[in-house]
């Protein structure tokens, strides 16, 4: 099937923000690579969306052969630099999260209180502490206001705002509450990154060098001679048109080895007929959908009760 490029381009080509920033969009990746590490077979040939490079580095350190692709040249340069040992830097997202954390101090989120919360290890205790000290009416109002579509449209391009639930603030609050009951804070680097702005987790050296490529994901896969065993597609579908999503799916099928496994994420809420959503197992706590599937349409196993 032939596609007209102007009809099947992705909104990620321009980026998620109304204005083009001069720094990377992401300084770290808010995705729990433990999911990919669990479901990808050993030494897989992996196609990954580069982003901040965290997932690619985690997979390469575990022995996978990773090709990390990003359409944003500045973001890809940052991800490559991180793989070469350069220090983490704040991206636009980290600056926005810092603003949110500063506002949260007005709702009682003192650093000592957060440090104590992050030292806890038992789900019911974490949930009780959250409900008593952190999930205050003022904090709920701040989150709902900051994540309201009207305000998000001042910063984000309309395709990305349109991909979010209208009650995004409420959904994020519910996802956090769910996560506190499932995952031990004391061993969750994503919780510390989110609440305190801590630096992302470091990984061991890559067993095989990561192949970084600046390209559109669909275009790269349409022309790739490789056959990939696994795909870590991040939330590339958020903000993308249906025509681009169909183009990407066709390109993935073309470049996939038999039995290839896909991991995709979305900030959207799951569809009613979703049967194997791993979002609750993602310790980054933010996703509405984390789908693990094979290209034949089957699910790659049921989500475990907990990951780490």
Main sheet characteristics:
6 strands, mixed
Helix content: 40-55%
Instruction: Give the name of the CATH architecture of the largest domain.
Output: 3-Layer(aba) Sandwich
CATH class of the largest domain: Alpha Beta
Structural class: alpha/beta
Strand runs, count: 6
Structure annotation, total helices? 13
Strand content: 5-15%
What would the average pLDDT be, to the nearest integer?
Answer: 92
CATH topology of the largest domain: Rossmann fold
Radius of gyration: 19 Å
Written as H for each helix and E for each strand, in order along the chain, the element string is HEHEHHHHHHHHHEHEHEE
Low-confidence runs of at least 5 consecutive residues? none
Instruction: Tell me the strand order in the biggest sheet.
Output: 3-2-1-4-5-6
Envelope shape: globular
What distance lies between the first and last C-alpha atoms, to the nearest angstrom? 43 Å
Fourth-tier CATH superfamily name of the largest domain: Vaccinia Virus protein VP39
Summarize the SSE layout with pairings.
Elements: H1 33-39, E1 45-49, H2 54-61, E2 65-70, H3 73-83, H4 92-104, H5 111-118, H6 123-134, H7 137-146, H8 149-155, H9 158-162, H10 168-182, H11 189-196, E3 211-214, H12 217-223, E4 228-232, H13 242-255, E5 256-266, E6 289-294
Parallel strand pairs: 1-2, 1-4, 2-3, 4-5
Antiparallel strand pairs: 5-6
Helix pairs in contact: 5-11, 6-10, 7-10, 12-13
Descriptive report:
The chain has 308 residues and is α/β, with parallel strands linked by helices. The protein folds into two domains: 5-89 and 205-294, Vaccinia Virus protein VP39 (Rossmann fold), CATH 3.40.50.150; 92-196, no CATH class. It contains 13 helices and six strands. The model has no long low-confidence stretch (mean pLDDT 92). 41% of the residues lie in helices and 12% in strands. A six-stranded mixed sheet has the order 3-2-1-4-5-6. The N and C termini lie far apart (43 Å). Helix 7 (137-146) crosses helix 10 (168-182).
